[in-house]
């Protein structure tokens, strides 16, 4: 009996070690991919600066050649200089074409790297749902989920305690269902400073009635969830999880998530067990 028990414990220990190894490997992969992505961004910026400089040199050479054609049609020395400048111009144009090709290749790599980073975020979200909660500095936030607390606060002022909890839950659930309707789009486009922006249409009938009937606190809770859905899942309109920096109230970077996991790996492992 003890042999069987010891064998089971050893097997469980080996499985745990394997899971821990995979866990750390994934973290290192995400860290390495992030560093590669940043390197490619810096390289692209340098390439674009060089491309702009080369374009300016080509424009300047074309201008000089244009002037010389008018001034020295019969001057042999001028003709030689024009040929030299024309050869230089052709070389610069060739360099520019090569640089544009390199830029396109780099942009393609950048898009691939960005896709990989997005995939890495999805893997972290899926893999660490049980580890990253909403009570830590770095965790998972359910984007588009309405906070029920404002509903409770408001309903407590209008109903008895038991009735307030029921009304708050019912009302919150009702509005969560309303948010799922992709055909309801209470947003409008404005142009400020020449840049189109999508903002909440506060004159939308349902939005206006919500604020009038239930007040600012519930209104803000619904609007915040609506804006999150419009940003993170406008077509599907269902709640999605996001890696979140709760301390600074923003999306967490992969670097922050990896640093948090590495720092807290022992306690996270205990939680998982």
Chart the SSEs and their pairings.
Blueprint: H1 2-71, H2 76-127, E1 138-143, H3 149-156, H4 161-179, E2 187-192, E3 195-200, H5 205-214, H6 216-232, E4 240-245, E5 250-251, H7 254-263, H8 265-272
Antiparallel strand pairs: 1-4, 2-3, 4-5
Helix pairs in contact: 1-2, 1-7, 3-4, 5-6
Describe it for me?
This protein has 2 domains: about 130 residues; about 140 residues, no CATH class. Helices cover about 70% and strands about 10% of the residues. It has a 3-stranded antiparallel beta sheet. A two-stranded antiparallel sheet has the order 2-3. α1 packs antiparallel against α7, α3 crosses α4 and α5 packs antiparallel against α6. The longest helix is centred in the first third of the chain and has 70 residues. It is elongated and about 100 Å long. Pfam families: XH (PF03469). This is Factor of DNA methylation 1-5/IDN2 domain-containing protein. One of its GO terms (biological process) is gene silencing by siRNA-directed DNA methylation.
